[in-house]
Amino acid sequence: MEAHGPDEPADHCLLRRPGGHLRYPFRDAVRLADQLTRYTRAIEGDLFLRGIDLRDLLRPGGGRSRLTPRRLAVVLDALPGDSLYKTAVRDAIDDDDLVRMAAQPTAGHGRWSHTDLLLADIIDRLGHLGYALRAYEKPPEAYRRPGIPGRRRRQTSDAVKAMIRAIALEHAELHGYSLDDE
């Protein structure tokens, strides 16, 4: 009998879906068991932080947290990028595979953490500060966030431009400098 890997089960393990497509019913279970074996401590730590007991997986009915293999797989997939589990998976990737993966185009961007959003806000604020200090001629574009389309800039009316110019002249006069000196 020929040996088969977890992604290629023997023919007697295959099920046919309507339409003739083959389905491997145990592939997901084998992957989950592999992840649990490799990263038990990280997975248990992440689940503990979310109020889920990994031991519930072995208890009848999934225990108090009603943890099933499917639910565990969903929770693991939904963990943020800085979780213990996803960090452990990333740390296990060797450098050659990491270089190969980095060369591939991304299918999209994951959800941003609170820290990522704060950093994007800081970038935006520094850009506006640079504009206020006249380091830039035009106000900078907002730093792109995934899932948020870029905004189009509206044309400023002549009346608004005149009002801004009047305020700037008044400010210059009040503080003893001239806008024409620049």
Could you explain how this protein is built, in words?
- There is one protein chain.
- The protein has 182 residues and is mainly alpha-helical.
- The model is unreliable at 1-14 (pLDDT under 50).
- Strands 1-2 form a two-stranded antiparallel ribbon.
- The chain is 48% helix and 2% strand.
- The chain has helices at 27-38, 40-49, 69-78, 84-92, 95-103, 114-132, 158-175; strands at residues 15-16, 22-23.
- The N and C termini lie far apart (84 Å).
- This is Transposase.
How would you concisely characterize the structure shown here?
The chain is an all-alpha fold and 182 residues long. It has seven helices and two strands. Helices cover 48% and strands 2% of the residues.
Spatial sequence of strands, sheet with the most strands:
1-2
Structural class determined from secondary elements: mainly alpha
Q: How widely separated are the two ends? A: 84 Å
Q: Please bin the fraction of helical residues.
A: 40-55%
Top keywords for this entry?
single chain; 182 residues; mainly alpha; 2 domains; two-stranded antiparallel ribbon; 7 helices; 2 strands; 2% strand; elongated; disordered N terminus; Transposase
List the helices and strands and how they pair.
Elements: E1 15-16, E2 22-23, H1 27-38, H2 40-49, H3 69-78, H4 84-92, H5 95-103, H6 114-132, H7 158-175
Antiparallel strand pairs: 1-2
Helix pairs in contact: 2-4
